[in-house]
Amino acid sequence: MKKYSILALIASVVMMSACGPKDPGLKDAYKKYFKIGVAVTERNVTDSLISSIILKEYNSITAENCMKPGELHPEAGVWNFEKADIIANFCREHGIKMRGHNLVWHSQFATWMFTKHDENGNPVVELDEKGDTVWVERPAFGRFRPGQRPAGAPGAPGGAPQIEMTKVPKYVAASKQEFYDSLKVHIQTVVNRYKDVIYCWDVVNEAMSDANNPDAPYEDSFRKSQAYQLCGDEFIKNAFIWAHEADPNCGLFYNDYSAWTPAKRTYIYNMVKKLQSEGAPITGIGMQGHYNIFDNPTLEDFETAINMYLELVDDIQITEFDIRINEEAGGGLQFSRGEGQQYTEEIQKQQEKKYKDLFEIMRKYSKNISCVTFWNVSDRDSWLGANNYPLLYDSNYQRKPVYYVVRDFKKNK
Question: CA neighbours within 13 Å on the CB side: how many for 11?
């Protein structure tokens, strides 16, 4: 174990044993309001220090990455359940329920579903008039952490892109029905495997456009993903129907970032209303909380969005909560990981105020907000990088002053 972990563990044990019931966790402070959740990796739940924090603070757990379609089901007939099972078994052992994240997402998706496969499960290669394989070039990028782009990729920092290309076979595209056949099997296999421990699913994630036009026509409000281009909005409806068939008692959420903005809240509202009228069992809306300490979100727009969604569903969750100290926000791929930023006293106070103000609104709507999920345990684990200081625990797994602002809201009135 690294030196910082040993020191932090000693401090944590001393703190918890000394304080006992006088030191409630976040879940205890909010037991009359809503669940307090956290996104974790399999490493988090097998590390003694981090798992002790999880058990003390949270009563809902989300797998940060390993339940996404491309992680669980990277190829036709290939399933990688090991990491997801580690987290699910941790929750079973300790009596904690999970949020499932997610069944359909354009990123980290099981993209093999868009390719035609033969009876043996092999992708069908396109042939030219001579019967030879057709080859195409594509960027030779490896796999990257969500939110990152490789140096030289389009839009990445570092000057003009230097893109290495590689040749790959061109595969025959799947028909819409073939895509649906694969997607239904994926959804129902995963939902059934974890239905004993998962109480709700992000069924479809981030399907709406980032266009900043609340008056956009309905068709223009969608992200032009492969699924949308092939199926229109029908793939969203079907995903909810198939998830409901697998587990009729599970909460089924549409989840998206920037869900407070006038444009995207309008897109989400119109989509959910239409698809519900067509039979989609959408029971909740997840508002991803990738916010910043400035005006993202504005408190007025945040509350307005909650009230709009409550016209359609009874259950809202803040699903991916963190508040970074720079001016970026949302789920975009380009962001600063905080190199050189200083967590000054002024910045700390701004962050504390933002957390305080947002939790005040969430408590106000606690009748309909069932869970608030922090997007990982500590700054060290955050997808935003430790130097954005987005969470309540610091890089040494110690509580920051903002933790007490959130937990001790009754004392701080």
Answer: 11
Say if CB 341 and CB 325 are below 8 A apart.
Answer: yes
* Vertex 67 angle, CA 383 and 85, to 5°: 115
pTM of the model: 0.88
Which of 310, 314, 412 has the alpha carbon at shortest distance from 355? 412
Angle at CA 339, nearest 5°, toward 337 and 341? 105
Tell me which DSSP letter residue 379 carries.
Answer: T
Distance CA(94)–CA(89), nearest Å, equals 9
Whether 206 sits among the annotated catalytic residues: the reply is yes
Active site residue 57: no
**pLDDT per position as a tens digit, 189-218:** 999 999 999 999 999 999 999 999 999 999
79 CA to centre of own chain: 21
| Confidence band, pLDDT 50/70/90 cuts, at residue 334 | low
**Contact of 171 with 123, CB cutoff 8 Å:** yes
**Phi, psi for residue 38 in degrees, rounded to 5:** -150, 145
Q: Of residues 320, 328, 339, 345, which has the active-site annotation?
A: 320
* List 42, 57, 64, 206, catalytic entry: 206
- In the chain, the domains with their CATH numbers are 3-124+174-407 (3.20.20.80), 125-170 (no CATH)
